[in-house]
Amino acid sequence: MKKITLLGLFFFGGISIYAQDNNKWTIEECVNYALENNISIKQSELDTKLADIDKSQATMAFLPSLNANTSYNINTGANVNPATNQFENQTFRSASGGVNTGVNLFSGLQNWKALQRSKINIIASQYQLDKMKDDISIFVANAFVQILFNKEQIKVLEAQNKITKENLDRTNELVEAGVLPKGDMLEIKATDATQIQQIIAAENDLFISKIGLAQLLKIEDYKTFDIAEVDYGLFADTILEEDASTIIAKAKEEVYDVKVAESNLELAAKDLELSKTQYYPQLSAFMGYSTRWSSTNLDFITGQEMPFLDQLSTFDGTSFGLQLSVPIFNGLSVRNNVRRSQVNVERSEYLLEQANLDLESQVYQAYNDAKNAKKSYEAANQTAEARKLAFEYAQERYTVGLTNAFDFSQASINFENAQSDVVRTKYEYIFKIKVLEFYFGIPIDQINPN
């Protein structure tokens, strides 16, 4: 299973976003653009093309081979006349040509097993491509949601700073009226300055996150690049009613990491079968036709050079037969190749077993994370509500001079932190639920409304 970064999967699969204007990208547009332009995906697509080529080559291996050859030579000194097979110590010209065909009759079913392997390899390469697309989609979605998170964080900070500025104005009036000491105004000013610094830092984080997504999409216009925003709701948590073992069983049918491991094991087993075919004798049939010409071949009647076409018909010949190759001793290379293949099969079995164990661990982890994320979100809401009441109470007391600016600032900071925790735990809760649904096999573009 791909390593899913925080919040990415939910925003990729769970929400349909529509751009507010042409300058803002939706999550679908970002993901689709990345799927069409990402280099890693293009490389995986090339692997599937190579797998198709391997299958074509394995299929063509069943057909007979057909080759033609020709040569033209100028010979000086003592050379064998290719037409008469006699030594001639003179300069002469010669030519030869032929056609040969051959067919493999038996080689331990090597061609058949190679064809089977090529079919398995096509499936394996497609699994790898699908996994790569999922990885890239989540990577893009994570960059997308980071922008959304930074934007919402800025809204929280700006809202809190607006309250601080209002309190600063009221404090200034009370200080001028002699109701509050000047130190209270300075304390509020310090709080205001700190919040402005936080807003600047958040805006910088937002800009950097935009650059990150733009670079991922290979978009050079960083300044105008932006994403569409919507108000995100919560998923229903009915998935938590499912048993973890049920989710694991579904995940083994849906997750590509396990499928990749299974296909790799099949490939290793087929490679073992192919290596064993080298133990068998190989039987092939062949047939050939050849002819030749030489400038020194004379006609017995006229005493002149024999015509070219006459020589081709006179000095031609055919050959056909069977060829048997029996492996007897070759430095134990075949045996060692078989042993290597056996080791690869065992390694692939371990990898498949590990993939299943990892999947079980990931599902159990996701199951517990989803439950805990829900509890954290509920607790954060309760804390935020309490902090809000505490802040309002502190504000009322500060207005009438019953508390100092420092205590009021602390109440304001606590309320701000509580609001940030609500934002953070909300997105984590949504993300964890969607991850668990993904393991369960629910399509990532399907929304389960609360």
UniProtKB/TrEMBL annotation:
<keyword id="KW-0998">Cell outer membrane</keyword>
<keyword id="KW-0813">Transport</keyword>
<protein>
    <submittedName>
        <fullName>TolC family protein</fullName>
    </submittedName>
</protein>
<dbReference type="InterPro" id="IPR051906">
    <property type="entry name" value="TolC-like"/>
</dbReference>
<comment type="similarity">
    <text>Belongs to the outer membrane factor (OMF) (TC 1.B.17) family.</text>
</comment>
<dbReference type="InterPro" id="IPR003423">
    <property type="entry name" value="OMP_efflux"/>
</dbReference>
<keyword id="KW-0812">Transmembrane</keyword>
<dbReference type="Pfam" id="PF02321">
    <property type="entry name" value="OEP"/>
</dbReference>
<keyword id="KW-0472">Membrane</keyword>
<keyword id="KW-1134">Transmembrane beta strand</keyword>
